[in-house]
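Researcher: Next entry in the queue.
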Amino acid sequence: MASRSLNKALLIGNLTRDPELRYTPKGNPVCSFSIATNSSWKDAEGNVQEIAEFHNIIAWNKLAEICSQILKTGMKVYIEGEIRNRKWEKEGVNYNRTEIRADNMMVLTPLSKNVSVDTDFDSNEDISDKNSKSASKKVKDVEIEELDSLDDLPF
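Model: Structure for this entry, 155 residues:
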């Protein structure tokens, strides 16, 4: 039996570049960007030391579209996701990259008043799935209304 495990990353940082939105051959949106997190401490001599870590972020589907619409370089964001390591070979050279696959994103920098965003999403949900789900929800609502109007309910 396999033991349980946890792969969770929680980051608060600033965007180092504007998000880049692309589409897979199947039409799924994917957005990539990076954020920097900073930390500081005092060394043995009492001098303040600082370090910046840079994190590659990947968002999919509706979250990808939202990120590409509202995020800009320098904005502070909260990212929640899981750590992924990718390996590939190109022209005989091996590459490795560590990324955070974002499941949730919150903008911590105040947005301008003219930005409006639909935040009702599941990061793993395809956009066409969302449209079909909302259509089926409407059908269910109609069915419930019809049932409520019947006088001979069994209860």
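Model: The first strand starts at residue 9 and ends at 15.
Researcher: Noted, moving on.
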